[in-house]
Every structure is written in structure tokens, then in C-alpha cells.
């Protein structure tokens, strides 16, 4: 047996269906104890660990407090390890009434949980898997998807029947699930409007979206995944078109620049590049007038007369400067 810590020792599993057994000394701070064991499992790169409902037997500990301490320890472990070796944490429950106690403790954290958790409870075991959000996730488009917890109690004549039912249930769920990913440089240029649209998709459809730089991963019910895929493709197309329009407008402004006279500055001020392009298009298309925004007010520009008038009749002069002349 190895004894890396005074509060527990690790031994071989013998005939039990596991690799190691960690024996720990009873103590009041169950949360600290569970945390130590989880860190030891992570250090040894174990893939899974199973706990008893510590102290709820002959020790007579309050099951609700035990559940809170154990779940707090697991939650903190998941949040502090972005890519843990420990993928599965199980709590073995021999007393049926403890299932509801642990479930209640989990529900208390549902509203504030930052991790997506899935629970599968059987007559003997309670499973907890947790995923931590990537720190690389784009901050300007944080997509939060509330995961509704599903609790399934499986009872059967024997262990084999329970396992068969569990496998069937997992298979049925997986058949409905699908995942795909869209990668495009335009995703990086998504504005708050696009981010809000993505959040709306998550609310309306049975999907989860993961935004990471220039890619979006879509997972969920297959039909809804493809609906979201099509919608996001359309969003990308619009963003690309808008970006190309901006580039075109900026290039044009290097050659032709429309300006309006601002009395406060006693000088001519350039229009923004997109308005500049609209004015030039109106000019070349021999359009009589066009609406523009100047200082957050709507003006009607008379292209031929070279002036702009707002709704109150205030008039200002505009000019067209051909920068290519004289070059």
C-alpha cells in the first residue's frame, strides 16, 4: 500500500472490478476529503472514481449536509480543471431515500451552475459528469444554454435487466443527437446583433452552440441542428456581404469624398464611407435626392443643388471632392 497523504492510503483492488482502492480516515470536513481524493485521482490520471455516500450509514451524518459537501467538492474540481483525466465521478447509494437527498442538492445548484451537468440515477448508483467552458470562448458572444436536468430511476429484477434498460435509454438518446461545425472567418466579425440571433436560436431550438473564434459547433436534435446550420450560414453570408460593402466603400472614399458643412467647426466634414458610397451611387445614377443621417438627424440631400435639408427646414451645404483630379 502507498501512503502519499496522512488522511488516506491507496491499495490494490484485489478481486474488485477497479484498479485501486483509496482508504481514507473519517473526518468532519467531507468536502475537503472528497477534494483530496479527486486531486489524487487526477494526479494518478485515473479516468473514473466511485465514492460511497460518506458518513450516511452508521456514522449518522446528516445526508443533506453530506450531499452538499460532496457535490460542492465535485463542482469545484470540475471548474478548476479544464481538461481533467477524471471523466466520471460516481456516488454509490445503497439507501433509496438518499437518491432524493442528492437530487435535491443538485437542483439547488441548477440556477447558478456554470457547467453543463448530466445525471443518471439508478437504484444503486448516481452518476455525475461535468463539462467546463473553454477559456478560449469568444467573450463578446457568450452563449449560455440552460440544461434541463433529467433524473431517471431504473429498477429491475436484477443488475443485468437494469443495465439493459440503461443501455437502451442511452442508445435512444444518442440516436436523436447530432453535431456539426461551421468554420468561417466571417464568424469572427459577428456583432452583438448576430450574437443575439445565436442566443435566440438556442432558446427556440433544441440545440447548444459553442462559439470559438472563427468556428461554431452545433449539437442537439438532428432536425434542429440543420435548421440552425442553415440560419447561421445565411448570417455568415450577410456578414460577408456587409464586409465586402465596407471595403468597397472605403476604396471609393479614397477617390471620391462627399462632405457636409458643419457650422460649429466652420469646415466641411466627410460622410462615413457607406453614406459616401450611397451619395456617389445617387450621383452617378442621376438620382434627384437621397436621405442621409447627419449628427443623428435625418436630412434629405438634393444631389443636383448640393444641399441637405432636415425635417425642420435647416439647410446645410454639401460638396463632392474628386481626389483623383490633379494626380
From TrEMBL:
Residue ranges of coiled coil: none
Pfam families per the UniProt record, alphabetical: KH_PARP14_8, Macro, WWE_1
Ranges of residues in domain Macro: 1-110
Every WWE domain range: 244-321
Keyword Nucleotide-binding found: no
UniProt entry keywords in alphabetical sequence: Glycosyltransferase, NAD, Nucleus, Transferase
Compartments, as annotated in UniProt: Nucleus
Gene Ontology MF, one: NAD+-protein mono-ADP-ribosyltransferase activity
Gene3D superfamilies documented for this protein: 3.30.720.50, Leucine Aminopeptidase, subunit E, domain 1
Protein name: PAR14 polymerase
Amino acid at each position: 500500500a502507498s501512503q502519499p497523504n496522512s488522511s488516506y492510503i491507496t491499495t490494490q483492488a484485489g478481486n474488485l472490478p477497479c484498479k485501486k482502492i483509496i482508504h481514507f480516515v473519517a473526518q468532519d470536513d467531507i468536502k475537503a476529503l472528497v477534494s483530496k481524493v479527486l486531486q489524487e485521482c487526477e494526479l494518478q490520471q485515473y479516468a473514473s472514481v466511485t465514492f460511497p455516500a460518506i458518513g450516511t450509514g452508521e456514522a449518522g451524518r446528516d445526508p443533506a449536509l453530506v450531499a452538499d459537501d460532496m457535490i460542492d467538492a465535485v463542482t469545484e474540481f470540475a471548474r478548476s480543471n479544464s481538461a481533467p483525466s477524471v471523466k466520471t465521478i460516481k456516488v454509490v447509494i445503497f439507501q433509496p431515500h438518499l437518491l432524493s437527498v442528492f437530487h435535491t442538492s443538485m437542483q439547488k445548484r441548477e440556477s447558478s451552475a456554470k457547467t453543463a451537468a448530466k445525471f443518471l440515477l439508478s437504484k444503486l448508483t448516481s452518476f455525475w459528469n461535468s463539462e467546463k467552458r473553454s477559456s478560449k470562448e469568444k467573450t463578446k458572444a457568450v452563449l449560455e444554454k440552460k440544461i434541463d436536468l433529467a433524473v431517471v430511476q431504473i429498477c429491475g429484477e436484477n443488475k443485468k435487466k437494469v443495465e439493459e434498460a440503461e443501455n437502451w435509454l442511452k442508445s435512444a438518446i444518442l440516436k436523436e443527437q447530432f453535431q456539426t461545425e461551421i468554420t468561417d472567418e466571417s464568424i469572427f466579425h459577428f456583432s452583438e446583433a448576430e450574437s443575439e440571433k445565436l442566443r435566440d436560436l438556442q432558446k427556440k431550438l433544441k440545440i447548444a452552440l459553442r462559439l470559438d473564434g472563427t468556428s461554431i459547433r452545433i449539437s442537439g436534435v438532428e432536425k434542429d441542428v440543420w435548421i440552425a446550420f442553415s440560419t447561421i450560414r445565411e448570417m455568415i453570408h450577410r456578414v460577408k456581404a456587409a464586409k465586402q460593402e465596407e471595403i468597397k466603400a472605403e476604396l471609393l472614399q479614397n477617390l471620391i469624398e462627399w462632405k457636409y458643412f458643419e457650422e460649429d467647426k466652420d469646415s466641411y466634414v466627410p460622410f462615413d464611407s457607406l453614406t459616401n458610397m450611397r451619395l456617389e451611387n445617387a450621383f452617378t445614377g442621376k438620382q434627384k435626392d437621397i436621405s442621409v443621417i447627419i449628427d443623428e438627424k435625418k436630412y434629405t440631400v438634393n444631389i443636383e443643388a448640393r444641399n441637405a435639408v432636415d425635417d425642420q427646414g435647416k439647410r446645410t451645404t454639401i460638396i463632392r471632392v474628386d481626389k483623383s483630379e490633379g494626380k
